[in-house]
């Protein structure tokens, strides 16, 4: 019945990977026969209020550590499906990371002064004595915001995001002539295979995995694809030597 509930409500299958899913199953089993789940009204009302209260208590445990360890304020900007430009502010410490707030920057110019003003406000809310550093990406407006904030707050540092630095480095490396040639060749191979359903299935049979794996870092995907081709070249060679490949019309064209 659990699977039917999933299918009937078109729930994403990855929900079963949630840490709360096995806990829910155990709770239902321990409750025994006759247990009733919360109604839609209860889920939207008292249940939600109780869970929000529990989350607030959990966050309080993080805040207790802040005076002793200090914190890092992080901002992550992105566009949602409605093309709104949002900025999420997170607070990190050795105990973990908690969400602080979000702002909608869609109708505002993303100037360094504007971003600095929001960061400055959050520093006050968290406690200036608790903030060790602020981490943003390396765009000019964020860099300016970080430098302005350090002028206002002499006890903290602005640090550029390491992941964004690596992303920009890979972007520049892609422009090198030898690297550009390798990338072009790898794209020709992957596009040809992925554009033919039969060859794609044949690749999985010999290669045993996908060549292209999406990375959280946009420019890292290209290099991970090249690495995947290099590490598993034996499987690709086996596929090209196979009778199925030799007799396939698309492969022979």
Task: Name some characteristics of this structure.
flat, 5-stranded mixed sheet, alpha/beta, Nucleotidyltransferase, domain 5, 253 residues, 3 domains
Strand content: 5-15%
Estimate the global geometry from the Cα principal axes: flat
> Over all CA atoms, what is the radius of gyration?
25 Å
Overall structural class, as computed from helix and strand content, comes to: alpha/beta
Q: Supply the CATH class of the largest domain.
A: Alpha Beta
Helical amount:
55-70%
- Give the N-to-C terminal Cα separation: 50 Å
Number of helices: 13
The spatial strand order of the largest sheet comes to 3-2-1-4-5
Number of strands: 5
CATH topology of the largest domain: Nucleotidyltransferase, domain 5
- Tally of distinct domains: 3
Rounded mean pLDDT score: 85
CATH superfamily of the largest domain, by name, is Ribonuclease H-like superfamily/Ribonuclease H
Uncertain runs are none
Largest sheet: 5 strands, mixed
CATH architecture of the largest domain: 2-Layer Sandwich
Give your account of this protein's structure.
There is one protein chain. This protein is an alpha/beta fold and 253 residues long. It folds into 3 domains: 2-58; 67-160, Nucleotidyltransferase, domain 5; 170-252. 58% of the residues lie in helices and 15% in strands. The chain has 13 helices and 5 strands. The protein has helices spanning 2-8, 20-31, 40-44, 46-69, 112-126, 140-152, 162-173, 177-194, 197-207, 220-231, 233-241, 243-247, 249-252; strands at residues 71-79, 85-93, 96-104, 131-136, 157-160. Strands 3-2-1-4-5 form a 5-stranded mixed beta sheet. A hairpin with a 5-residue loop joins strand 1 and strand 2. Helix 5 (112-126) packs across helix 6 (140-152) and helix 9 crosses helix 11 (233-241). The protein starts with a helix and ends with a helix.
